[in-house]
Specification:
- One of its GO terms (molecular function) is endopeptidase inhibitor activity.
- With 394 residues, this protein is α+β, with helices and mostly antiparallel strands.
- The protein folds into 4 domains: 35 residues; 96 residues, Immunoglobulin-like (Sandwich), CATH 2.60.40; 110 residues, Sandwich (Immunoglobulin-like); 36 residues, no CATH class.
- The chain is built from 7 helices and 20 strands.
- The chain has a 5-stranded antiparallel beta sheet, with no helix packed on it. A 4-stranded antiparallel beta sheet has the order 11-12-16-15, with no helix packed on it.
- Strand 19 and strand 20 form a beta hairpin.
- The radius of gyration is 57 Å and the shape is rod-shaped.
């Protein structure tokens, strides 16, 4: 036990011994330096100031007290030093652990991508078929913008239509968003689409414009074939026929109210009103306007059809806001034209495969007159002057 106490005292006094040895070494060094420089600078007589004597005396007394305390209380001082060392070691370990603690993985910086949208208007409903394909409003983005979890799925938030429509938004692929309305869109209607990119699109996608519009195809018609018709069974029955084609079933009452027909003879300035009749197909997509029977005109003329504004459809649609007109020329009493000429192979009594020339005229003529006016020549199969063609057939 005494040996342990002696060892503790030795260890505790060792710093004081080293300090005293250091100061003694410094005193010897300064003494040697003084002797070395004495021949050069001579004798120096220096007295320390009063404050230095007080400070050095206080330091010396404190040093001696500390050294004496080591001899008197070796256990307490050893325990205190041990506690201080443990505290310092713990502080150093804690500081080192804090510097090297596990750090959360920082996400990579977001790379934003600017995109744009092209809105395609829905196709018109095909009322000519029994079941038309559903209409679709298509939003085509320039880049892949759909969130990875939403591709190919229905969209319930992040996009809206005004006025509101029943239907479904769906991502067809990563860059195509399609709206399929539950019912056909009212023809001629216009809609606004508002997008919320933060909800609808992938996080890295930026969209400058979030408001778009589209329109449903408007109700309209076009004037089809117009002709001056002569009944082949009764050449005296002549009339003008106008075909009107609609892109949706027409409301017959509103259509017939907007029809006006007149006849202008030769170069007359006034127009004579004509009565008319109508024929419709089963779906009311085509109308044929027939003029009243026309008489032969000495100098010809024109039949004028006018379709006014306000024609409606039986489906939900706009009224047609513009008028259209059409013309049919009426030939003169003395005009005769060849409307068609074709060769056919026909079978007659007792013979097979006779060639016949079928000629259609714009008016009835006598057989004898046609026979005197028509001439026919049988031409060789190839040009006699073309030697190559003749050799091939030979």
């Amino acid at each position: 036990m005494l040996a342990i106490m002696d060892l503790l005292k030795f260890i505790l006094r060792l710093p004081f011994t080293l300090i005293k040895g250091l100061f003694r070494l410094l005193a010897v060094i300064f003494g040697l330096l003084g002797r070395l420089f004495k021949p050069v600078v001579g004798n120096l007589n220096w007295n320390a100031p009063a404050w230095w004597a007080e400070v050095s005396g206080g330091v010396k007394r404190g040093f001696l007290r500390l050294e004496g305390g080591v001899d008197k209380y070796p256990k307490a001082i050893s325990l205190s030093l041990l506690v201080l060392l443990c505290a310092a070691g713990g502080a150093f370990y804690g500081w080192h652990w804090w510097l090297n603690r596990p750090q959360p993985i920082e996400p990579a910086p977001m790379v934003y991508q600017e995109t744009s949208v092209r809105v395609s208007d829905p196709e018109p409903v095909n009322y000519a078929v029994q079941k038309s394909a559903p209409q679709q409003v298509i939003l085509t983005f320039r880049n892949s913008v759909a969130p990875l979890t939403d591709a190919g799925k229905a969209v319930e938030k992040g996009i809206s239509i005004s006025p509101a429509l029943e239907g479904q938004w769906k991502w067809n692929n990563a860059w195509t968003l399609v709206f399929t309305p539950k019912n056909p869109l009212p023809m001629g209607s216009k809609y606004e689409v508002k997008l919320e990119p933060a909800v609808l699109l992938a996080p890295q996608i930026k969209l400058a414009n979030t408001n778009y519009s589209f329109s449903a195809p408007a109700f309209d018609y076009q004037l089809g074939q117009a002709e001056y018709y002569q009944d082949p069974q009764d050449p005296q029955k002549r009339s003008a026929i106008f075909n009107v084609k609609f892109n949706a079933p027409v409301d017959v009452a509103s259509f017939e109210k907007q029809i006006a027909m007149g006849l202008i003879e030769a170069n007359a300035k006034s127009e004579k009103k004509l009565n008319f009749s109508l024929v419709y197909d089963a779906k009311k997509l085509n109308a044929w306007v027939h003029s009243e029977p026309l008489k032969a005109l000495d100098h010809g003329g024109k039949v004028h059809l006018v379709l006014g504004k306000g024609i409606k459809s039986v489906v939900s649609a706009n009224e047609i806001a513009q008028s259209k007109d059409g013309w049919v020329s009426v030939p003169t009493l003395y005009s005769l034209t060849v409307k068609d000429a074709s060769a056919q192979v026909v079978d007659s009594d007792g013979t097979k495969g006779q060639r016949a020339l079928i000629v259609a005229f714009s008016d009835a003529i006598k057989d004898k007159d046609a026979g005197r006016a028509v001439k026919a020549w049988l031409l060789p199969q190839h040009n006699p002057n073309d030697s190559e063609a003749s050799n091939e057939t030979g």
